[in-house]
Amino acid sequence: SLQNISDIMLLKGIDVGIVQSDAMAYSRRKRQFPRLDQSIQYIAKLYDEEVHILARKDVARLDDLAGQKVNVDVSGSGTSMTTSVVFDALGIAAQLTNDDQRTALEKLKRGEIAALTYVAGKPTKLFDGISGDTGLHFLPVELTKPLLETYLPAHLGHADYGSLIPDGATVETIAVGSVMAVFAWTPGHERYNHVARFVDAFFSKFQLFLQPQRHPKWKDVNLAAQVPGWTRFPAATVWLARQADAGTAGAGMQTDFVAFLSRQGGSLSDV
After folding, report:
1. CA dihedral (179, 180, 183, 184) positive or negative
2. b/e map of 230-268 (b: 16 or more CB within 10 Å)?
3. Interval 169-195: pLDDT, tens
4. pLDDT tens-digit profile of 13-63?
5. 76-to-120, 125, 147, 159, 242 alpha-carbon distances in Å
6. Separation CA 163–CA 127 (nearest Å)
7. Could you tell me which of 49, 113, 110 has the C-alpha nearest to residue 81?
8. Contact, 79 vs 119, CB < 8 A?
9. pTM over 0.85
10. Rounded to an integer, what distance in angstroms lies between the CA atom of residue 205 and that of residue 203?
11. What are the tens digits of pLDDT across the range 85-143?
């Protein structure tokens, strides 16, 4: 994600890239890119990935991880980046380790680490076959105000992890979105016009991604969904407003987009 942001900002031939939605928050905290907020926008949010935090039996809540070893996948991974943002926002000073996930899971079973974090679309195969008798369990992640600026509410359930979550129970967590990011070209610029044409093609032909031969995750995409902490590319905003105003957008898209305009203090006629 961070490399893609760098490429969008610095490479002449790159207009669009796919990044995790919290890459913006991480980059701000680390002050990696000057004028980032003015340079990067987004076209659409794609699928979500849930934050999984699997812990030992004696760890009851996130605060218990302070001072303990928590594996966050290999250095530079999306899981490592997300964990850094979340733990910093919640003030959890854990000892972060960087084993691959399979190695970390074995260490967790042996009690050598307190927990592991994994950002992945549920259900993930990493947790297949783990018996509830081990005492390992998922920690809830509350969507606090600091996290609300970057993440979305999500949950893990029995249908996702039957051996770890009892029937009828859920574990609240957060999700990070995959974002189609773009350089913030000025309207009227030649490169802006190129991207605007791409937006029109991508949005107008989006139904093709829902056909059976495409990945099921496309069915989770809502083109009107907002990405906290990001600014939408103007051509995408105009396209969505035009479709909603014309009544040709899906009911879910139109409802979400009108709600967005309401939060901004505007209406469809303002776009």
Report:
1. negative
2. bebbbbbbbbbbebbbeeebeeebbebbbebbeeeeeee
3. 999 999 998 899 999 999 999 999 999
4. 899 998 888 887 787 777 777 787 788 999 999 988 899 999 999 999 999
5. 15, 22, 21, 31, 40
6. 9
7. 49
8. yes
9. no
10. 6
11. 999 999 999 999 999 999 999 999 999 999 999 998 888 899 998 987 899 999 999 99
Task: Record the tokens describing residue 256, joined without a space.
Answer: 């979400």
CA dist 261 → 152, 154, 221, 268, 269 (Å): 19, 24, 19, 7, 10
Listed in sequence order, the residues at least 6 apart from 180 whose beta carbon sits closer than 8 Å to its beta carbon are 16, 17, 18, 42, 43, 44, 45, 46
Residue 81 neighbours by CB distance under 10 Å: 24
Burial of 13 (0-12, 13-18, 19+ CB in 10 A): exposed
